[in-house]
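Backbone geometry tokens:
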Amino acid sequence: MDTPKRKLSEKTIRDWVGETSFSRGEQYFRDGMIFNARRAGSTLKADCHGSGGNAYRVRATVEDGSITAADCSCPIGGGGHCKHVAALLFTWLNQPDDVREIEDTNTALERRSKEELIALVRQMLLRVPELETLLEVPLPTGKKSNRKVNPETYRRPVAAAFRGSDYEWGAEEGIANQVDATLEIGSGFLEQRDIANAEAVFEAVANEVLVHYGEFHDGSGALSELVSRAVGGLGHCLAAESADTTLREKILNALFEVYRFDVDFGGVGLGDNVPDLILKHASSAEKKQVAEWIRAAMKKHSDNEWSDNWHRQVYGGFLLQLEADALDDEAYLRLCRETHRLKDLVERLLKLKRVDEARAEAARANDYELLQLADISARHKQAHVAEQLVTERASKSKDTRLAEWLMKHHKAKGDAANALMWARKMFDMHPSLAQYREILKLAARLDTWESVRVGLLDQLRRQKNFDLLTQIHLDAKEIGAAIETVAHVQQGFGVVYPSLRIEVAQAAEATHPRDALRLYARAAAQIIERRDRGLYDRACEYLVRVRNLYKRLGEDAAWEQYLRKIKEETKAMRVFKEEMAKAKL
């Protein structure tokens, strides 16, 4: 039995619900929003008043001071990280005597007579009339039944969960909380090895969620998780040895419909697990049936050629896996071409030592595909072919990934000269400090470090790329040069710490204090001139640094004169004056 004051802590609550829910939940607790608090074993239950006058059902399990599970019926309560759960936990932590002890639900139900249970159900229906629909729903009892259920029976409560939604942001969590109960029924049937009824439940949930999926943003992934759990349940049904041929076809069809929906929707991950489940548990004849469904789906066309090609590629990948044992080489290659599976096509051609054909096919690839094909060629000991293809493309393309592949390829070969050439090409297209460092490393191998460095810096000066020049000088701890080049950097809105000017100022404090002072003062002045209230604290931070540098230089009088000027210019800026006071300026 938990001793709450000794084991559960505020830190544990904060870690579970997060800072925002922690603060709001503490206030909810202090305002007495929790009522009807009770405990069955290690599980806490209660109702919590909401801000809109409604009440939510709250539950949390606390074991050995740790929160192992929680849930709330509010729109964002899935997973139990809301303020209402926090309020319940605060109640248990601070006022455990207000939480009455009750029997575990199963124990309480088991000791009731049949007549009492009927009376109890009637009372529940009087209080929550919508529960009457459960009387139509066959439920798992732990013992297998010969009663076959109608999927429509389970589809209705799922549809009702969506109908009752207000379609607001986060509504998916509330829907998922309701649909979860239906999924649990399916899991119950599965546990008692009632595969037909389990399939009916999982199929009903998957189908109805997909009907409404496009109506929601599902940023939390709550609806996706429902589909994933239904797919997992169907997978267990397919793996069961007791399912007959007719039932297995139903299971396969339910899985395929999820997969087909996901492909048509653009591939958001709803059907990602379906191919593996079918490949693992389907018989050869069943795989042939699924292959026929795929071919039928591929015949559908839209007005978008790109979309049609993408669909064919996705379906083609699954089809190749399904028919891997039945296709000879030519049939496999033909299917790759029909479904635009270029990677699979080149891979098989290379396995067959048909290098010229593989090269010709790879030449049709776009830049990104070519890089993947180059790696495939290298794996098949055809690195020279990959190098030739990428070199030809890189000489005409602006895609730096091609030059990067060639640079790494030549480095791996120990060819520093060619690696340096492609590194320079990358730098010319997109100059960066990281690429500058890479070039110097390669140049050092060739003993051309100094000349290459001078050439790069001259190139950047001609291009007036003072931003990168300043970064390079800072990297080399050339503070004087960095001060010189940063003066030419376009300022824009770059006064937010740490802007490049502030980086230079920080680096210059030790050796060039006057320049550092000037840079800090300029940054503070720009914030003040723009009256950017959100950055007043930054301006004051810079002014503190200005003060410290003046004092280091022994120029206290100059600092006092500068400070008086700042105060005079900002005397009407109340918020800024408050920030100055906080900074003790």
Notes: Confidence is low (pLDDT under 50) at residues 1-6, 493-497. The longest strand covers residues 55-63. Strands lie at 34-40, 43-49, 55-63, 66-72, 100-101.
